Amino acid sequence: MFRTRIAAIILLGIISFNSSAQNDAQAKKILDELSAKTKAYTSIKAEFTFVNEKKDKTKDTQNGKIQTKGSKYKLEIPGHDIYCDGKTVWDFIKDANEVQIKDMETGGDDGLNPSTIFTIYEKGYKYKFEGEDAITQTISLFPDNPDKKKFHTSKLFIDKTKKQITSVKMMMKDGSTQTYTIKSFETNINIPDTDFTFNAKAHPGVSVEDLR
Fold first, then answer.
1. Alpha-carbon distance 188 to 72, whole Å?
2. Which domains are delineated in the chain?
3. Which pLDDT score, from 0 to 100, does residue 122 have?
């Protein structure tokens, strides 16, 4: 479940496009602008809310934080602080006072990781412009390989002035929806590299499980 949630969080920003696919020209223009602006940031800090609405309309709401700098990231979600220095991942499980150490994944089911949470549109999705109002543009995205995904459609909402993602709504195959809303978004902040490594000294008695 934890890996599934991380993969979903990652999809907040890594909703990619395949330039070889037949896609909506207006959507492509918006995504290209969004990608160019996002990739120009040296670092990002953001807070988000995650709402999981099940088929029976029951809801689960959680909050999280993410900061990225190149391939480095720190992700904070309920019960976990996850650090990555670009090579190694430390998953600190708070209640157990335990840290699991792994190599940074470069592949996996989606080939995703939180360091690319706001790096947009490289490959794997078709897209369609759905419309806009005074503030927001909406684009739907569809996986090129839907059999490998747990969702069939994702709607991306973009602030048309700031060229920033404001929320993502994912329609899952099981009938549930997952919505991620960006609460705060800061860029080009000086973040020390030490923020992306786990400091065992700050957690006396921590149990270490090295899974590399």
1. 14
2. 2-188 (2.50.20.10)
3. 55
